Every structure is written in C-alpha cells, then in structure tokens.
Amino acid sequence: MSTKMMLPELGENVENGDIVQVMVSPGDTIAKDQPVLEIEAGKASMEVPSTVEGEIEEVHIKEGQTVSVGDVVLSVKSETGAETEAESELESESESESELEAEAELEAESGSGEASAEEEQEPEPPPKREAPEGPAKQEKRAAGKAVAASPKVRRLARELGVDIHEVPASKPDERISEEDVKNFARSLLEDRERGGGPSPARPSLHHAMPLPDFSRWGEVRRERMSQTRKATMEHLTSAWFAIPHVTQHDRAEITRLEELREKFQPNVEKEGGKLTLTAILIKMLAGALKVFPRLNCSIDPANEEIIYKDYVHIGVAVDTDRGLLVPVLRDADRKNIKQIAVETGELARKAREGKMSREDLEGGTFTLTNIGGIGGSFFTPIINAPEVAILGVGRATLEPCMGRDENLCRPRLRLPLSLSYDHRIIDGADGARFLKWVVDALEEPMLLSLEG
Predict the structure, then answer these.
(1) Hey, how many other C-beta atoms are within 10 angstroms of the C-beta on 264?
(2) What spans are recorded as compositionally biased (Basic and acidic residues) (predicted)?
C-alpha cells in the first residue's frame, strides 16, 4: 500500500522551512530513520529522517520550496498493510477541518435566528469552564519545555489567532488537544466581551505599513527572503520593540595587546586555530560577566523576576552568504584563550558552510559582534533577546595619543567599543562600570588574571 510521509515537527516554535536538498528519488528504497532531505528552518540546517520504509513512489517537494510541518513530502510503497501514523494523522486532520467547517456553518445558522429567540426566552448561562492559566504560569511553562502539540492542533491555533504557547493542557504533562485550543479561544473572546481582553500583541511584520507601487518610478524585481533572513527580521524587530536599548561607547588602547597577539599566534596555529581579537575579547567578556553577573541574566517580566545564569555562553555574530548567524561558544569562563580560538574558528566554519544545528544557535547569555574586519567604528548593536546586553566592536586604528607619564604624542592602536544593554535591568552606571572593566582588561591583560 502507499504511505504518505509528512514533514515532522522541526523544533519548538518552528512551523516551516526551505528545502535545501532532496536526498532521494522515485524508485529508491529507504529505511526508517534514513535521512531523506535537508531543510533550513529558522537559521539552522538539519537532515530530516524518514518516518516510513519502502520504495519511493513520488517526491512531492523540490529544492528551494517552502514546506510546513504536516505537509506531505513523500509517497512510499510499503509492504506492510497496517495504517501508518502519518496516514492516520492526515485523515484525522481532514476530519478535524470538516468538523470546523460544520461548526462554523452551525454557528452561522444559529446566529441568524438569535434575535427572535431572545424575545421568547432568556439565554441559558454558558457551562462553567476552568479559567485558563494566568500569563505567569503560561510563560513559565513555555520557558521550561517545548509545547507538546500535533501539527493539526498548531494549525487550528493559527486559524483561531491563538498563541499555542499560551494554551494550557487540560491535563498536566499531556499534549495540547483541539478542545484545549477551542476552550482557550472562547475564554479570550469572553474576556474581550467583558472589556478585559489580552494586552496588545507585539508588533507584527505582517501588519507593516502599506508600500507604494515602486514600479511607477522604474523597473523593480522581487527576491524571496531566505529562512535566515526571515528569522533575523522577526527576531530583531521583536527585540527592538520590546527592549529599551541604551548604547554606550568607549575606546581601548590595545597596542600592547596586539603585540602579544602576534607573539603567541604560532602557539594557537599549532592547535589548528587562529589567535584573533575576537577570541581574546570572548575571554575578557567571560571574566567581566563573572564580575558583573547582572549583564549575564535574563528578565522574566510575567513573574517580575531576574534569572541569573551560573554559566557563561557567548554568542559570536558571523557574517555568512546566508545572512547573520550567531553560534554559541559554551562555558567561555572555563576555557583558555587557545581553546576559545580553536572552537570559535570551528563554529565560524560551520556557520559559513551552512552546517549549524539548532543546538549550536541556542543558549547564549551574551553576544559579541565584531565588524572590525570589514570596517567602521561605533554603532548600535541590537540586543539578542532574551539576553540583556551585546558588545559591538569596530576596526582598530592608529591614533596620536598623549602618554600618561610623558608629554609626548605617540601613535597608539585604539579599539572602538559599543555596549548596548537593556535599561529595564541595567542602569547607566552598571553599563559604564562593565565597559570600563573590559577596556581596562584590554589595556592591561594582567587584570584578567587578577580579577577575571
């Protein structure tokens, strides 16, 4: 019999992706868990294993196509006669859609006779339902683990305009059902009718200002956004609207540090790495974050709490052909500069080759973005939420500087630094102290051994 393989869930809050490579063709025989396609979802690339086994009859997708969770990707001729989970879910999905259509028709019919019915009798009070969890519990649940819901339930939530992460399951530790979504949607409508609707949603890119017809003034062309660009657009827009940014600037005199970097470069090259300023900065930041843990935290506004992290994972912005990626170097405070240099080089290579996994991009506590290799000085980096700070680094330049102990003007190498932070949790004085510590550590590397 023929079996339909659907695109499985790709991760928390990931609903679709772009096909990078189709690894099979009609006539091929595949085994269960064999990789059959590569997909780019968000900023990560991943291989999708087969959920069925048998001979491929038809491939329903092609490279470059955007597919959603639950879409049919393969038709496979299976020797087993039992109905597969994929087919069962497809059938139940269509049944669910039919039920929704029937329910909508029924509501429309009952609505037309509502006025005359009201004249004859008072409406019965609606059956009591348990109130949905409060925002604090919902956010806490969402932060603790991924939402357990099937693709058809997620689709229903989207159709009803409900955030699946806010829907409480009727029974603890169970998957969210269609009934849970419907009950939650009804409770939101009732709250709105009573005048106590939910707080305004965050700005959506799908409701942006209307665009003029640019072709009125000349030739235009449209290019489809990649998954990486869409993810960047959504994430940075959300962060910019949600976080009150403050950016402070300073310069560090790194003439001596640069001499040391060149001196010890061969030691790192022996280990297969490259001693870059980025690697040194990561170590400096790891030391600073231990001294100033407030910049290594996150905010839980719903519960009015600050979440302090006893680990230091530094995200490093990498410029790639696909767009900006931020792989995470873990436990930077427990590694020496040589280890950091080797691992950072490996992460950058994976990012540029499109081999980043979701795990590589998650869990950062602070981000470093260095545009010095391209050019530029000061800028305003946007915080990588839910982190609360990010350090931007420009190009170091030789500048005439007065010596501290002599009245002589000498050329010194100075590095521009831009620290953006969340003003809800970090005061200006805290930001200034943190940035000064980083500057002092760059100018006097021995400080890292003393205090970092």
Answers:
(1) 15
(2) 125-142
In tens, the pLDDT along 83-111 reads 444 444 444 444 444 454 545 444 444 44
Please report, for the chain, the start and end positions of each structural domain, with discontinuous segments joined by +. Answer: 2-87, 134-197, 228-451
Residue given tokens 């707080």 in the structure block: 199
Model pTM above 0.70: no
User: In b/e form, how buried is each residue of 314-353, taking b as 16+ CB within 10 angstroms?
Assistant: bbbbbbeebbbbbbbbbebbebebbbbbbbbbebbebbee
CA angle 349, 351, 355 (to 5 degrees): 95
Chain length of the chain:
452
Question: Is 134-197 a CATH 4.10.320.10 domain?
Answer: yes
Mean pLDDT of the chain: 81
CATH T-level fold of 2-87: OB fold (Dihydrolipoamide Acetyltransferase, E2P) (2.40.50)
By annotation, the residues acting in catalysis are: 423
Note the pLDDT tens digit of each residue in 283-337.
999 999 999 999 999 999 888 999 999 999 999 999 988 889 999 999 999 999 9
Q: Exposed (0-12), middle (13-18) or buried (19+): which is 101, by Cβ within 10 Å?
A: exposed
Q: 358 and 328 in contact (C-beta within 8 Å)? A: no
Could you give the CA distance from residue 419 to residue 260 in angstroms, rounded to a whole number? 25
Query: Which run of H or E residues covers position 323?
Result: strand 323-325
Q: How far apart are CA 434 and CA 52, in angstroms?
A: 54
Return the SS3 of 226.
coil
CA distances from 365 to 307, 333, 362, 385 (A): 11, 12, 9, 9
CATH class of 228-451: alpha beta
